[in-house]
Design goal:
This protein is α/β, with parallel strands linked by helices. It has one domain: TIM Barrel (Alpha-Beta Barrel). β4, α7 and β5 form a beta-alpha-beta unit. It is globular, with a radius of gyration of 19 Å. It starts with a strand and ends with a helix.
């Protein structure tokens, strides 16, 4: 069985800081990251979805964490086709348009290329330190199964190479009927890691919890089962605390998933208060114990 790394999708969320999870001595950004890295070997950086990181910030992340620590970086929203606030785009590349949100086609081609170049360049300190896990490309619910979108997945991998990527899909068409086998076969063919998800079902953005490894790295993200999944309030959307029984049922499944790939990343994305940290610690104990539910 390959290595399983468990972590959370945030270490700086304000509700986490208010929860008391950090000791009072962890009173700076540097101390909080160092404390987090002593508890978990993996973290997902969510802030990079909302605004591209600077190279200096990535250097600090690398310096403030021990050898073997891993950062998964969430791709900037513009690169996944999500609506992006003009203020989030590099100042010298912002188009002069009167729009609340921007999409790739709103930028001149040269500016769009520069966004890609600068985003990836900023991650070099993590890559050089051996601390970059993957760049997570989480696509929007309207990113359906079709040839042009498959081509874009291949383009994403090409643009990022040699930096690794992972693909999270949010439209049920990729998994409807025979499409599921087609989707997984396509990802395997192009050696693209598929991101398995645990999330509420019955919504337009719902995808089933398909546990499959399509590359040497497998990923699972736990989004919770909030009954307010459609809420615009992210704390209502993700504010779900998994029970011990729920996590115990997942432990053998995760061990089974980890049998083939070299490494499996498990991220708790139920980021409200210290829910994700508590559940991540529980899951680590369950995986280490090897007990069946």
């Amino acid at each position: 069985m390959g290595e399983i790394k468990v972590g959370t999708a945030s270490w700086t969320d304000r509700t986490l800081l208010d929860s008391g999870w950090y000791p009072s001595s962890a009173d700076t950004a540097e101390k909080r990251l160092a404390y987090y890295a002593r508890q978990f070997p993996l973290v997902e950086v969510d802030a990079t979805y909302y605004s591209p990181p600077s190279e200096h910030t990535a250097e600090l992340w690398a310096q403030r964490t021990p050898d073997g620590f891993t950062f998964n970086i969430k791709a900037f929203s513009l690169l996944t086709g999500h609506p992006t606030k003009p203020s989030a785009i590099y100042k010298d590349l912002r188009p002069e348009v009167d729009k609340k949100n921007l999409y790739p086609n709103d930028l001149p081609p040269q500016s769009y290329e520069q966004v890609w170049t600068r985003f990836l360049s900023a991650l070099e300190p993590l890559a050089q330190a051996g601390k970059l896990g993957v760049i997570l490309f989480q696509f929007p619910p309207w990113f359906t199964i079709r040839r042009s979108n498959k081509d874009y997945l291949v383009e994403v991998a090409r643009r990022c190479s040699p930096l690794p990527v992972a693909i999270e899909l949010r439209h049920e068409s990729w998994f409807r009927g025979d499409n599921q086998d087609e989707t997984l076969r396509f990802l395997r063919e192009h050696e693209l890691p598929y991101v398995c998800v645990d999330m509420p079902q019955g919504h337009k953005s719902s995808v089933p919890p398909v546990l499959e490894a399509t590359a040497d790295l497998a990923l699972v993200r736990f989004h919770g089962h909030s009954d307010r999944w459609t809420s615009r309030d992210i704390y209502e959307k993700f504010g779900y605390l998994y029970s011990e029984q729920e996590l115990a049922a997942w432990a053998p499944k995760l061990r089974g998933l980890a049998e083939e790939p070299e490494q499996t990343h498990v991220l708790l994305n139920n980021c409200y208060s210290d829910y994700a940290q508590r559940n991540a610690a529980q899951l680590i104990n369950l995986l280490d114990s090897g007990d069946a539910p």
